[in-house]
Amino acid sequence: MARTEEQVAAVAAMVEHDTRVRERMAERLRDQRTLSVREAKRILTVWQFYLRVLVRFDDRRAVVEQACHLVVLAEIIARWPAAQRGLLGRVPAGHGLEVLAGAAEDDWGWARAVRELGLHAAEHRGCVGGVRELLRRYDGDGIAALAARLT
Fold first, then answer.
1. Radius of gyration of the chain measured on its C-alpha atoms
2. Do residues 66 and 54 touch, judged by C-beta distance below 8 A?
3. Distance CA 99, CA 96 (A)
4. What secondary structure letter does DSSP report for 3?
5. Is the pLDDT of residue 1 over 60?
6. Could you identify which of 76, 120, 127, 148 might form a hypothetical disulfide with 95, taking C-beta atoms 3.0 to 4.6 angstroms apart as the criterion?
7. The Cα angle at residue 79 between residues 24 and 143, in degrees rounded to 5
8. What is the DSSP string of the chain?
9. Which tens digit of pLDDT belongs to each residue from 52-111?
10. What integer pLDDT is reported at residue 3 of this predicted model?
């Protein structure tokens, strides 16, 4: 069900003030000790953009859970822009983050997934380690499914 601009703004405001969403955002920003103000703003801007996309079409009850997943997805998008082609692209096995989420608990599977997505170069080492940690710590499958819908 598509919503009007007024409805989108009202639901987005409700989600932005939800305790679970605010706690998740605070946790993710707090966990990044070297985060600059510019980087924090980038994460928030990405999150707000995709939140409005979600709000347009998702059931109001599902939006809060999706908004919590979106906090982590926004962090991935904002923190590692050089890796977006691999993380958000599609390969024969599926969407990049879905491939990674499916392999996050298996070292061999992870190594294969990283290579398949073209993220095995030294320049991506910090990214793949950080993404794996996020996918393990939070609902990696949920985050990946959301990424596949939005990107």
1. 15
2. yes
3. 5
4. -
5. no
6. 148
7. 50
8. ----HHHHHHHHHHHHT-HHHHHHHHHHHHH-TT--HHHHHHHHHHHHHHHHHHHHHS-HHHHHHHHHHHHHHHHHHHH-GGGHHHHHSEETTEEHHHHHHHHTT-HHHHHHHHHHTT--SGGGHHHHHHHHHHHHHTTHHHHHHHHHHH-
9. 988 887 766 688 899 999 999 999 999 999 999 999 999 999 999 999 999 999 999 999
10. 73
4-18 confidence digits (pLDDT tens): 888 888 888 999 999
* Residue from 47, 54, 55 nearest 24 by CA: 47
Q: Beta partners for 91?
A: 94
Hey, what amino acid is at 144?
A
The model's pLDDT over 120-147, given as tens digits with 9 standing for 90+, comes to 999 999 999 999 999 999 999 999 999 9
What is the distance between the alpha carbons of residues 30 and 25, in angstroms, rounded to a whole number? 8
In which residue are the tokens 């801007």 written?
45
